[in-house]
């Protein structure tokens, strides 16, 4: 039987450190997209599983040898796809420590350090977003599970008011829950409803305006037609335009109906950390629950989402697990299992703690403001080119662009930019029209990065238009 060998740990970690440093050094200069696909990766990695095994350092070398070709440079300052933020240095380093400690952070007794760090990080986030200070907070894998967790609490809350115990009795025979969203709601809301047994047929979509903002009057009219428990899902930061629903007005309508208001703020909730942007999210504090990602704008490594629920008891009751063999706290100590769907989990809140403590309020504000400034810069540079049209009001970090008012040309420019490699961005369909979607959410993106990227986009556009 193998024994615990600190020498082998040191050798593998030294190797990993050297390989990781080389990867990071190349990051600002490399082709931003992945160059190889499944066939090349399978050819490099597939092998019979050996009987005796291989040297760990050789395995690390093998994996690292494929990283430049088989990974997208998601942490590159010129990666603008899917609202993916690159890891902040202290966040990455802390995540290494989290893996080294190898804590199952589900209950306090296993890891008081992880529990305390997550408790403090939760407090800081409530303060940063200026949300009710006694709200429940859970650190989950991403905004999909944050929406799931919040909507589980919402399901509990609205059925509790109707006299139904969904945790004990399930949904069979329960009052039918209606869920109202805008026509622009994110697909993670639909998926969460499927997971929760509410189902997508419970969805009522109301009209949105040209920027993707829910129309309050359409919401009011829809609610007037519904009987029984209601959950309304609003949005802070449309995935295409970055637009915010009129949250204060929506909150007033929802409260008058005694419904639950949930806000999907995957990246938009971070506008609350900026003095210049927080007006976009005016009234968000009136909601009953909020979902966001820390691996987007806080730039901690994947994976880390955050679920926040005003009524902590609704949150805890919807999530908590109890078993005779566990040692669970009855005091002030935090058991993460009370706030998240997972039982076994990594201590993902610790990098949040480290990053918030390193940046402080001003640092977080600067990170958010800087990304939005770079988005405006790129929008202005692209709009200056004849034949290029920015289709959205650039209120946050999202830019939608069309080329020659032509779907095929727009898609060709997106593909051409991805292939050219200066930057990477994705395409989308917006109001039945093809568009390029630029998402700026990396702490390291500079004015020069934005300028170089816009220049590359224009260069590809000109070459295709000239054909």
Automatic annotation (TrEMBL):
Q: Which cofactor does it need?
A: pyridoxal 5'-phosphate
Does the keyword NADP feature in the UniProt annotation? no
Keywords in alphabetical order: Decarboxylase, Lyase, Pyridoxal phosphate
What Pfam families does the annotation carry?
Pyridoxal_deC (PF00282)
Sorted alphabetically, which InterPro entries does this protein's record hold?
Aromatic_deC (IPR010977), PyrdxlP-dep_de-COase (IPR002129), PyrdxlP-dep_Trfase (IPR015424), PyrdxlP-dep_Trfase_major (IPR015421), PyrdxlP-dep_Trfase_small (IPR015422)
Q: What SUPFAM superfamilies is this protein classified in?
A: PLP-dependent transferases (SSF53383)
Keyword Metal-binding attributed: no
Family membership = Belongs to the group II decarboxylase family.
Question: PANTHER family, per this entry?
Answer: GROUP II PYRIDOXAL-5-PHOSPHATE DECARBOXYLASE, MIP05841P
Name listed for the protein in its UniProt record: Glutamate/tyrosine decarboxylase-like PLP-dependent enzyme
Source organism (scientific name): Agrilutibacter niabensis
What lineage does the source organism belong to? Answer: Bacteria, Pseudomonadati, Pseudomonadota, Gammaproteobacteria, Lysobacterales
């Amino acid at each position: 039987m193998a024994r615990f060998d600190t020498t082998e740990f040191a050798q593998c970690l030294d190797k990993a450190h050297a390989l990781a440093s080389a990867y990071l050094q190349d990051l600002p200069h490399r082709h931003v997209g992945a160059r190889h696909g499944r066939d090349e990766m399978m050819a490099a990695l597939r092998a019979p599983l050996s009987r005796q095994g291989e040297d760990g350092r050789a395995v690390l070398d093998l994996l690292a040898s494929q990283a430049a070709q088989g990974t997208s440079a998601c942490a590159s300052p010129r990666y603008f796809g899917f609202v993916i933020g690159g890891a902040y240095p202290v966040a990455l380093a802390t995540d290494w420590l989290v893996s080294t400690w190898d804590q199952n952070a589900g209950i306090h007794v296993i890891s008081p350090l992880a529990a305390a760090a997550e408790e403090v990080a939760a407090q800081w986030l409530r303060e940063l977003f200026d949300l009710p200070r006694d709200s429940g907070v859970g650190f989950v894998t991403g905004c999909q599970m944050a929406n799931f967790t919040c909507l589980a609490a919402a399901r509990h809350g609205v059925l509790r008011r109707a006299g139904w115990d969904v945790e004990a009795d399930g949904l069979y025979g329960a009052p039918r829950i209606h869920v109202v969203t805008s026509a622009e709601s994110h697909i993670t809301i639909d998926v969460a409803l499927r997971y929760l047994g509410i189902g997508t047929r419970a969805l009522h979509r109301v009209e949105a305006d040209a920027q993707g903002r829910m129309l309050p009057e359409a919401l009011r009219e829809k609610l007037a037609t519904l009987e029984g428990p209601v959950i309304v899902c609003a949005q802070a930061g449309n995935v295409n335009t970055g637009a915010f629903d009129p949250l204060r007005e929506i909150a007033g309508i929802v409260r008058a109906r005694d419904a639950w208001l949930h806000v999907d703020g995957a990246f938009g909730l971070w506008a609350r950390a900026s003095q210049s942007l927080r007006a976009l999210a005016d009234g968000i504090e009136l909601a009953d629950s909020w979902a966001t990602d820390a691996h987007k704008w806080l730039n901690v490594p994947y994976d880390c989402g955050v679920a926040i629920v005003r009524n902590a008891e609704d949150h805890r009751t919807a999530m908590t697990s109890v078993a005779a063999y566990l040692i669970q706290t009855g005091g002030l100590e935090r058991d993460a299992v009370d706030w998240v769907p997972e039982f076994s989990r990594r201590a993902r809140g610790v990098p949040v703690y480290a990053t918030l403590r390193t940046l402080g309020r001003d640092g977080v504000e600067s990170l958010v403001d800087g990304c939005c400034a770079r988005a405006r810069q790129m929008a202005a540079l692209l709009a200056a080119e004849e034949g290029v049209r920015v289709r959205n009001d650039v209120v946050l970090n999202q830019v939608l662009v069309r080329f020659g008012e032509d779907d095929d040309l727009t898609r060709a420019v997106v593909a051409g930019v991805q292939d050219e490699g200066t930057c990477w961005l994705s395409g989308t369909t917006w109001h039945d029209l093809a568009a390029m979607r630029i998402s700026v959410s990396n702490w390291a993106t500079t004015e020069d990065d934005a300028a170089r990227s816009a220049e590359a986009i224009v260069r590809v556009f000109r070459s295709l238009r000239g054909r």
